[in-house]
Amino acid sequence: MAGSPQPHTLRNRLTWLTVFRTVAVSLSLVAFAARVFLQPVQEPSHGDMLSFAVIGLVYLFTLVYGLMLRGGWADRLAAVVQVVGDLLIASVLVFLTGVGDSPFTFLYLLAVIGASILLDGRGALLAALASALTYSLLLVAVRSRWLVSPTGGGDLSLQRVAFLIGSNLLALVLIAVLAGYLSRQLSATGGRLSAREADLKKLGTLQQQILTCMPSGLITCDAEGRVTFVNRAASAILGLDAAAVVAGLPVESLLPGALGMEAHVRRRELSVQTREGARTLGLTVTGLGDTGSEGMLIVFQDLTELRRTEEDLRRADRLAALGTLAAQLAHEIRNPLAAMRGSAQLLVQESSGDPLSARLVDVLLRESDRLSHLVEDFLRFARPPPPLKQEVDLGALVAETVDMLRADPLARQVRVETALLPLRILVDADQLRQVLINLLRNAFQAAEEGGVVRVTLRPEDSWAELLIWDSGGRIPPAHLSRIFEPFFSTRQGGTGLGLSTAHSIVRSHGGNIRVSSSPQEGTGFLIQLPMRD
C-alpha cells in the first residue's frame, strides 16, 4: 500500500473534497426543492422536512469543517473525521429516502472514493466495508421494523435484502480496490512530478546563480535583435543602471556592430562607448535555435585593461630601445662637443679684440651649452637615476607643487581645483615633483583662458591614484598611443622628452601613467603609484 499523503498534499485534498461536498449538497438541495415545488399544493411531508434538516446540518458541518481547515487542522485524524462524516450523511439520506429503494446509495461510493483520496488503499477498503455494513444494518433494521423510514421501504423480502447487501458489498469493494489503485498511482505520479519540479527549480536557481556570478557579460536578443536578457556582469561592463531598463531595446544600441559579424568569425574585438569611457570588448555571437531563428546569444569580456597593459609593455619596450639608442648617441656627441667648446674658449683667449670674431665665438659657446643641456636631457631619459624613496605625504607634496605653480603665467588664465586626500607612500619626492611640474604646465597650456584644471588624489584598492585633468581635450586620438614616445611633440619648440621622462619616472616607481582625451570629456593624465612597496 502507498504511504499516507504529505501534510500539504493532505490539506489540499481535504479542501477540495470540502468544496466538492458543498457543491454536491447544494445540488441535492436544488433537487429536493424542485421535487417539493413540483408536487400538488400541500404541506411538505415529514420526510421532506427531515431531508431539508439533514441538508442544513450538512451545510453546518461543512462550514465548521472549513473553519477548522482554515485554522490549520489538517492531519490524518481530520481525514478520518471527514470520511466518517460522509458515511453518516450518506446513511441518513439513504434512510430518509427508503433504504432499499433509495436513489442515494451511490453516496457510499463517493465516500469510498473520498477515503482512497484522503487516506490510502487500506483506508478505502475499510471505508467500503464500513459502508456495506452500515447499509446492511439499515436494510435489516427497516425490514424488521426496528426503524421506520419516512418514505416507507419496509416491505423487503429476504431474497431482495440479500441481493442488495451482496451487490452493494461487491460494488463497494471493487470501487475501493480500483480507487485505491488509482490513488496509489496518482500519489506516485504526483511524487515524481514534485521531485521533477524541485529538480527543475534547483536547476533554474543554479542557472540564475551562474549567470549572475559569471565574470563575462551575457546578452540575449530575439530574432528582431531586441534585448531579452542582460546579466549583472554585462550591466557593469556597459555601465547600465539596470537590466530591466534595456529590455526590449535594440541590441545594436548597446553593442554597435555586434550582429554584423561574419558567420565564419567566431570571436572578434569591438570598441564601444560607455558612461565610463571607451571599452574594448572581446565578444562571441552564437545563434539560438536553428540558424539563429530564435535570436542570438552574445558573450563578451572587458579587454580594456588587458589592452592597456599590453600597450604599456609595448611602449616600455620601445622606450627601452630608444633609450639605449639615445644613450649611445649622447655619449658619441658629448666628447666632440666638449672638444668644440674647449676650442671655442681658446679662440676667446687668443682673439685680438675683433668684435665680429668675439660675437661668433659667443654664439658658438651659447649654442654648444644649449646642445650640452639637450644631451644631458637625453642621458637623463636614457639612464634615469634610481628613485631614492622616502615616506612622504603625497597629498601635501601635490598641494605644495600646485601652489608653487600658481604664480606661473600659464596658470593665471585658468581655474585650478584640487581634491586631495592625505596618503603616505614611499616615493622620490624630487622626481615626482618633476613629473607634476611637467604635467601641470601642459594642462595649464591646454586649458587656455577660462579653462579648468583639476587635480584629485584618492586611494583605489592598493594604488594611490593621482588625476590631472584639464578641460581642453585637444590631444587627437591618433597621438594618444605615441604621446609618451621620446622626441614626439606637437607643441612648437618642444623636445618631446617631458612626457617620456615622466613615464620613465612613474615606471621606475612601479606605477602606471595613462592618458585619455576628447573634446567632450577633456584630457586626463592618471598616475597610479603603489601604496605598498
TrEMBL record:
Keyword Transferase annotated: yes
UniProt entry tagged with the keyword Phosphoprotein: yes
PROSITE patterns, per database record: HIS_KIN
Catalyzed reaction equations: ATP + protein L-histidine = ADP + protein N-phospho-L-histidine
Domain of life: Bacteria
Membrane-traversing stretches: 14-37, 49-68, 77-96, 102-119, 124-142, 162-182
Domain Histidine kinase: 328-533
Keywords: ATP-binding, Kinase, Membrane, Nucleotide-binding, Phosphoprotein, Transferase, Transmembrane, Transmembrane helix, Two-component regulatory system
GO molecular function, one term: phosphorelay sensor kinase activity
InterPro entries to which the protein is assigned, alphabetical: HATPase_C_sf, HATPase_dom, His_kinase_dom, HisK_dim/P_dom, HisK_dim/P_sf, PAS, PAS-like_dom_sf, Sig_transdc_His_kin-like_C
Pfam families per UniProt: 6TM_PilS, HATPase_c, HisKA, PAS_8
EC number annotated for this UniProt entry: 2.7.13.3
Name of the protein described by the UniProt record: histidine kinase
Organism: Cystobacter fuscus
